[in-house]
Amino acid sequence: MDNLKIYCMCLDDTYLEAVKKLNYIPVGLKNKNFSKEWVLDNTLINISEKNPFYGEYTFYYWYWKNILKYKKKNEWVGFCSYRELWANKKETKDKTSMESLLRVFPQEWNNYETIIGEPIFLEKPKVSKILKYGKISLLKNFTEIFNSKYSIKFHFDMFHGNGILEKAIKLLPNKDRDDFSYYVRNEMSFNQGNMFISNSSKIIDLYFSEVFEWLKKCETVLGFNFKGYSKIRMYTFLAERFLSYWFKKYTKYLEWPVIYCDINKKKN
Question: Is residue 131 predicted with pLDDT exceeding 80?
Fold first, then answer.
């Protein structure tokens, strides 16, 4: 795609042909056996050993340290994964074919600095889920029982660990600590997927500088003793909420549809 590079992160080599059909750049994660056609997050300057906890952010770190300095002026760079992908237009109804996926640079982007995924709204969970995962969380956020949707903070407490988000927020710099705390307590949606696209090297560098500095501080307090699907990728979950806040506060952004599918199973 002219003037647009999309890096597509995958967990095994079987996705290579599907990624190439989209004309995306294939990225291999988790130190598995990938062919030479893949960009790998365990080469050059890297933190690939942290992938179980950092998810896609091990590649973000790799891109930031090794590739960002070569980005051309006004070139758009974006990120997605084999099952969370950008749609080809603002209104996308057909989500069953490869034609629904982004292939051409949309002219609507010209007046913006960054593109982030459309938000996912945190619907009120069933009582059974609250009793199973969120009894302590509900006691800490009891007023939310009356809401039709739940805040980012309550959702995080219930599914990823009580009090962890609050501990992490205390480690943010002054310019973001209070604003991000307000954001997670009052917002009832976030831009899921840890995905963004930008034409600004300055913005990409600033975001990565700030998020990785924060996550490094979080490591000293939270450590790595996380188990289970909803907890082991703790630093991915923290960054996902921060990405939504940060890009909205510091950039001229446009929300864009994200398609959730597996490109190996998608119809051509």
Answer: no
**pLDDT digit string, tens, across residues 21-50:** 999 999 999 877 899 999 999 999 999 999
- Does 175 have pLDDT greater than 60? yes
CB atoms within 10 A of CB 48: 17
Q: Tokens in use for 266?
A: 């998608």
What pLDDT score does 74 carry?
87
Give residues with Cβ within 8 angstroms of 226, minimum separation 6: 53, 232, 233, 234
Q: Are 39 and 27 in contact (CB under 8 A)?
A: yes
Task: Identify the sign of the CA torsion 212, 174, 222, 56.
Answer: negative
Angle formed at CA 190 by CA 250 and CA 4, multiple of 5 degrees: 60
242: nearest Cα among 116, 141, 158, 126: 116
Q: Model pTM?
A: 0.90
Residue 268's Cβ-count burial label (10 Å; 0-12, 13-18, 19+) is exposed
Amino acid 267: pLDDT: 56
Per-residue tokens: 92? 């996308």
Cα 47 to Cα 62: distance, rounded to the nearest angstrom = 7
Q: Mention every residue, 6+ apart, whose C-beta is less than 8 A from residue 64.
A: 204, 205, 208, 209, 212
